[in-house]
Amino acid sequence: MEYLFQFFQDSWIYQIENILTIHLYCGYRLSVGNNFKMNEQLKNILPDKRIDEFLSIGKEKSIMTADFFINAGETPIKIAYVFNGLFRYLYVNDKGDEFTKAIITENNFISSYSAMVLNRPSFFSIEALENSKVLEISWSDFNQLQDNDIFWVKFLMKFVEKGYIIKEKRERDLLLLDAETRYKNFFTEFPGMDQRIKQGIIASYLGIKPETLSRIRRKIAF
Q: How far apart are CA 213 and CA 222, in angstroms?
């Protein structure tokens, strides 16, 4: 009887250890897989030898559709690199009308940059338009990298310059192009985007009302 009790006890402990080992192993595989995918994506923007340094100051974070990375009125202290998913920079006026300032796709940074460097509340929110995965980075930690190595100052400058070029083009398009041309250009810049976001968001990005967008779509369809 004592032998049977010991047998079942040992068997039970063995099964528990097996379950724990399987869970730990699967978790390890998932972690390694995620890190591998991150490393591959970061090779688009960083030399191999800089990737671990960059990852060391960030934390992986999932942001669900309609959740916010930064809210208007909040003083931002963080940036993020988008591994997958989709975001928009969103203004909302006193009447509740929405204005989409920018659409940010994978392999780009999201931030309320001017508010962060001026240490003041953000005028816009950053909203996830899809379930997204990002590497969230404290601005103070990134500043520490810049203080220690000029490479990170140059790295940041490339993205600031890219943002300025996009901003200048967007302002020019809104000022000089008619709504139909802006709509056509939108799909050149964001192919397939109408399958990812609502038409109302596209209209708010183009600076037109939803009914105007509907008329343009009907005209182009014919």
A: 14
Domain containing 35: what range?
1-42
Is the Cα dihedral 173, 175, 177, 182 positive or negative?
positive
Radius of gyration of the chain (CA): 24
- CB of 174 closer than 8 Å to CB of 99: no
> Higher pLDDT residue, 129 or 1?
129
- The DSSP annotation for 11-36 comes to HHHHHHHHHHHHHHHHHHHHHHHHHH
Please write the tens of the pLDDT for every residue from 132-186. 999 999 999 999 999 999 999 999 999 999 999 999 999 999 999 999 999 999 9
DSSP state of 195: G
**32 and 60 assigned to the same domain:** no
Question: Alpha carbon 74 to chain centroid distance?
Answer: 18
Domain with residue 91: its CATH number is: 2.60.120.10
Average pLDDT over residues 102-128: 97
Helices 179-189 and 210-221, axial angle in degrees (round to 10): 80
CA angle 130, 135, 136 (to 5 degrees): 100
Same domain, 147 and 118: yes
Are 119 and 75 in contact, with CB atoms under 8 Å apart?
yes
